[in-house]
Write a structure and sequence with these properties.
Distance between the termini: 40 Å
Helix content: 40-55%
Shape: globular
Number of helices: 6
Order of helices and strands: HEEHHEEHHH
Largest sheet: 4 strands, mixed
Number of strands: 4
Strand content: 5-15%
Length: 193
């Protein structure tokens, strides 16, 4: 997991270099740090920060205190955006309203149109006029099994359409995890809503 954190920090440093070279992120330099909302929570493939900001220190502190092995022995693959959102809400007053916000410490949180282009479930890319960059949400950091589920879900959505594709995918997941009878019960209870 330390390799993953190193990777994230390396990407941040590369983005800072790109920022300086081509000016793509120039409008964002007025902030001490910037992040973007997703459809639920934050999206962190792209974020920026001045050196030694309190938030980055808080994130690193939280990271070093975490155990990446759960009590049952499996790996904790919670993405970085989950603790980031918690810390921004608890310590910096972020309101999870998915609107532009400037926090007291100079951190800006942008609406999803700025950094969140790809629906992780469907793979559909929306190119908003405000979009700074595209993150393909391929989940390359997850296990092969989880990536295979993602690929299957996206194929079902492409073939059957979003709503039916997601229902069929949920049924398949229930089927493999809980058996046929439970899969039928859960699927039909969702469809009745």
């Amino acid at each position: 997991m330390l390799d993953f954190m190193y990777y994230i920090m390396r990407v941040a440093f590369i983005l800072i270099r790109i920022w300086k070279w081509c000016g793509l992120f120039e409008p964002l330099r007025k902030h001490k740090a910037f992040f973007g909302f997703a459809t639920d929570g934050l999206t962190l493939p792209v974020f920026g920060s001045e050196a030694k900001t309190d938030f980055i220190a808080d994130m690193l502190d939280d990271y070093h205190k975490r155990s990446f092995i759960k009590l049952d022995g499996t790996y904790d693959t919670t993405p970085l955006d989950v603790p980031a959102l918690r810390i921004l809400k608890e310590k910096y007053g972020l309101i999870e309203n998915y609107q532009y916000q400037e926090l007291a410490d100079g951190t800006a949180i942008y609406p999803k149109q700025y950094f969140y282009s790809t629906d992780a479930n469907t793979g559909k890319i929306t190119k908003y006029p405000e979009l700074f960059c595209i993150h393909y949400a391929d989940a390359s950091w997850l296990s092969d099994d989880v990536k295979a589920e993602l690929i299957r879900r996206r194929r079902l959505v492409k073939i059957l359409g979003e709503k039916l594709g997601l229902y069929v995918d949920a049924f398949i997941n229930y089927l493999f995890k809980d058996g046929l009878l439970t899969a039928l019960k859960k699927t039909f209870s969702v469809l009745r809503r």
